[in-house]
Amino acid sequence: MSNSHRFALLDGIRGIAAVFVLTRHTASFWDLSFHRSYLAVDLFFLLSGFVIAHAYGTQLDQKQLKPLDFIVLRLIRLYPVFLLSLLICLVWFAAQRWVFAVPVSAPEQLGAAALLTALMLPPGLLLGGALFPINSPYWSLFFELVMNFIYGYTKHLLREKHHWLVVGASFLVLTAVAIRHGSLDIGYGHGIQSNVGGFARASFGIFLGALLQSRFESMRAIARRVPPALAVVLIVLVLISPSAGIFDASIDLACVGLIFPVCVASAATWTEGRLQRLWLFLGSASYPIYVLHVPTGQLLSLALGGLERNWAPISGILLVIVLLQVSALIERRLDFPLRRCLNQRFRHWRVAHCQPMKG
User: Fold this and answer.
1) Which whole-number Å values give the CA distances from 270 to 44, 65, 263, in the listed order?
2) In this predicted model, what pLDDT tens digit does every residue of 254-276 receive, in sequence order?
3) Which helix (H) or strand (E) holds 14?
4) CA distance linking residue 213 with residue 290, whole number of Å
5) What is the Cα–Cα distance from 240 to 37, expressed in whole angstroms?
6) Which residues on adjacent β-strands are paired with residue 189?
7) CA 55, 56, 62, 64 torsion: positive or negative?
8) Alpha carbon distance 202, 144 (integer Å)
9) Which of 32, 194, 325, 351 is the most buried (most CB within 10 A)?
């Protein structure tokens, strides 16, 4: 998708959300915490649904794109940087065991977990209680792919009213999970409640994002009431907001059910401006940051012997600056060229073996 067809401010919001997730998982680099930063994942799901519906919704509706082809395209989009991050995670485990003599899981357990993770499947309880213990942020990618599968195979069957039913049912499940758990900070661990919570967060966000895209023209009315600049400010204020104790569940539900959709609807109407290059830069760096920040932060912390704590939060700011640059470079020099090559090969394969893929 060319820059002229990209939603630049949505890219920027995705980048901002990725930075907030980074701060959550690299605590030793920061002398502060942003309590509600876990809601950045709900923003990812919402933005993903919007962009996927924009890029593929019509083709799936009109059967110009087969559901299986859609899944392959999504895997091509996600897998190259995912695999790079997995390799870095394995380097981190190896460094702990053979360089720093830190006790880690047995090689056979790690190997089995790495194999399942490479297939983007949860490795069970092989290494711990997290759904993806090798790199915890993978949990949201897993649920996103599950929802991509469902979206791809049901898009041509479901009308708008059915989408609303999915969104409504998902929100009811979210409400029950949030009340029981005390917040929406759930989905990354094992257990029925966590798995249901992760699935509901993904289904609600992705299907709601798709609905917002289908009503794109009506969003301009929202933008007149909530200007795009204000939308960005509101999102940041939500992510930095402190805990409210027993009210956390209600606040989280209000954020994902009202504030975030309104903000995304407003931001989607933003046109070219002075900050467009910044927003596109943040968007380009967002996915590499999301999957690379945990192993990178852990490797640096191990190498520094914990000295980053003495310079927090300056060390955290430096980590963000470096990772932004490295992530943008990875996207530009590695990820984008590799995805373009894979997409071309897949398109040629489709032409040679099946009917041409339109669009």
Assistant:
1) 18, 29, 11
2) 999 999 999 999 999 887 778 89
3) helix 8-25
4) 24
5) 7
6) 130
7) positive
8) 6
9) 194
